[in-house]
Each structure stands twice: as C-alpha cells, then as structure tokens.
Amino acid sequence: MSYTSVFGGTTIFPSDVSYLSIALTVDTPLEWPLESSGNLDPAARIIDVTPDASGRSIVMPDATLTGAGQTILFNNIDATFSFFVKDFAGNTLATVTAGTQWQLYLAATTTAAGTWRVFRYGASTATVQPSALAGYGLTVTGSTLSQSSPVTLFNSNYTSGGPDRAKTLVWTGGVGTLTLPTTSSAGNNWFLAIRNGGSGDLVIAPQGLDTINGAVSLTLSQGDSATIVTDGTSWYTLGLGQSAVFAFDFTSINLAGASGNYTLAGAELNRIAYQFTGALAGNVEIVVPNTTQQYWVSNNTTGGSYTLRVRTSAQTPGVLVARGSRAILYCDGSEVVDAETGGIATPIAVADGGTGSTTASGARINLGGTTVGIAVFTAATTNDAWTALGVAPSGTVNGGTF
Questions:
Q1: Which site from 41, 163, 232, 328 is most exposed, i.e. has the minimal number of CB atoms within 10 Å?
Q2: Domain boundary residue among 120, 143, 174?
Q3: How does pLDDT run across 107-144, given as a tens digit for each residue?
Q4: Cα dist from 335 to 209, 215, 243, 293, 319, whole Å
C-alpha cells in the first residue's frame, strides 16, 4: 500500500505500508502503522523525502512498540537540502544528503531508541547515467562527462546571470557593456570567459559595490579576452589577454568646467596616454585605480591658474602635471609616482656622462680644466684672454704700440 503524507489526517493504516512521500517542512515523527492513531505519518518501507531546508529531522517511532526486523529506505529526492533521521530518543542515525539513499533496519527493541543498523546505497560502487550529472560546465561525451564552455555571440548590452556559468561570451558589436551578476547571487566559484571580438571597447561592469580587480569596471579593447571569476565577494580576471595592437593607446578627456576629483571610469580606464583638455573651473585631481598601470599625461587644459594632479584615492597630494607640459607617471598599486625623476642620484659621475659636481667651477676642474685653460674659458674680454695666456695683445710689442 502507498500513502501520501497528510499530516493530521484520520486515515487508519494496515500493519505494513509500502510507500510514503513526505514534503519535509517541519520536524516529523513517524509511528508504526499497526499503532497508528491517524495523526502521524506511518513508518513505510520506502519513504521519498523532499526537505524545504537543511536541518529538518524525521524521528523514528518507539522501538519497544514493534519487533526487530523493521526496515525503512529513506530517499532524499531534493537536489539541494539534507535532512536527519533520528531515533526515538533524538540521537542522529543518519544524515541524508541531497540525492542519496539510506537503509535502516531495527536490530533490537529493548529500549525506546532501539538498536538500528544503517548503511548507504551506492557508497562503494554505483553506476550513474552521465546525462543525469551534466550541467553548467559539463557535457556528455559518450559514456563520460567532459568539460564544456559553450560559445554565445552577442552584439547588444547584456546582463549575465546564473545560466551563463562556464559559458564563453564573444562580443561582436561596437561599443558595449557586459553587466555581471552580483557576486552574492553568483556565489563563490561562478565564472565565465569573455572575448571582445567586436569593433569597439567592451566595458565589464559589476553591480552595486562589487569591483573587478579592485576597480569599478574593466574595459576590454578589441581582441582582449579574460576568464572572470568571483569568490562571492569580488570579481577577478584570470589570463587577461590584451591584443598587442592595443598595448599602447591614447584617449583625450575634456575637463571643461571640472573642479575637484575626477575619477577615471569605464572606457577611460586601462589606457596609456591621456590628454586632458578644456577650461578648468578649479584645481582638478585625476583619481586612478589602485592597480599597476603607467600613465603618459599631457596637460593641455586652460582656465585661470588651476592645477592638474594625478593620484590614487588614498594618496595626498597627487603628482602635479604643469599646464602645457607632459609627464610619464605610473601607479605601483598604492600611489602614483613620477617616473621621469625617480631614482636619479646627483651629481652624476663623469664616467656616467655627468660632471661629478653640482657647481660650474667644480665641473670644469673635474672635466680636466687647467688654471690657464679655465682662465681663458672664463675670460670676459679679448685682453683678459691675452692676459691669461701671458702674451702681448695683437699690434703691440712688449706692451707698446708699433
């Protein structure tokens, strides 16, 4: 006989119930069919269980009310949640995880808890149909499972989600945006592969406060590709491949009317050469991500005598780039550094192409100048030069006119 659980019903059961299906939404006690009051679920021979959350329990009946040899097969048909099987005294007999089957039989009935023997089906050797295991990132090849990363082409802005796990997305449009799912909804180890096969930049945009490689977004130029993965908190790229054609590129940013902080974002990120133009309305600080990157900056702004500096969010002050000038800067991951003057020690030795001195007189001596030579070199007039040489000026004999 089979029975579908109707908790609180008044059905009278025979001494043996073959099958029971339980939607496990609360801790559920069982009773022996022969002792049934109709208020509890019967201890059937086979019980399919669908828990709605982990931690639910099924409690076995009083062992003293039946005889040894009672047997029950518990089958957890849920794909996510586990449940406990406990004896009448509340001791855990088995933890039935999602998709597993456990057999219990009663060996002794001297106590209400009884003595139960427990074993799991398929714990040693089992035959599973590969098609039943295939899912995101897995496909069936003959009688085995293989890794899978199906390719999907897209040419309009797209927000990815759970079903995109393990996919390879290829951008084929112009300028566009791929919005990632929130890290909390994707969960630890969710990933996808992405390639920009289009004709414009593709911006990879996390949601909310999520970041990718510590930045608010990532721009893939044409030919760039990466695997994007999350730990459930942040996004990271693995094997970020950038086309050699775009190893050095240029962007111009108009700062007309700007004042205060200007944070690089979207397609402005991950460039090399930056030209800033426009009439400023105040001093401007260009804020860059805390990632290793070089910045070739040209300050072509106008407007008053306002300054332009480049810095990371925590750096104070930024590096000044004078109006009308250019600078080569780089970020070491924490702050922006002026690469043009860093690491040059003075004075530069003669052997390294310098003078070995910080003064003109010292430089002349270090470069081999003699007393006479230096006097001639520094002579202000012709007569001073003749005097240094110790000879009469031209047109005189022993200092007189001839």
A1: 163
A2: 120
A3: 999 999 999 999 888 755 555 556 667 778 877 666 67
A4: 22, 14, 27, 11, 10
Nearest to 119 by CA among 97, 88, 94, 86: 94
* Three-class DSSP category at 345: coil
Structure tokens, 394: 């031209």
Give tens-digit pLDDT for 254-299: 999 999 999 998 778 878 899 999 999 999 999 999 888 899 999 9
Kindly state the tokens that stand for 332.
């070491």
Structural domain for 177, as ranges = 151-245
Structure tokens at 318: 């930024």
- The answer to whether position 322 is within a domain reads yes
Those residues whose C-beta lies under 8 Å from the C-beta of residue 188, and which sit 6 or more positions away, are 230, 231, 232
Region 325-335: what's the mean pLDDT? 91
CATH assignment of the domain containing 214 = 2.60.120
pLDDT digit string, tens, across residues 128-185: 556 667 778 877 666 677 888 999 999 999 999 999 999 999 999 999 999 999 999 9
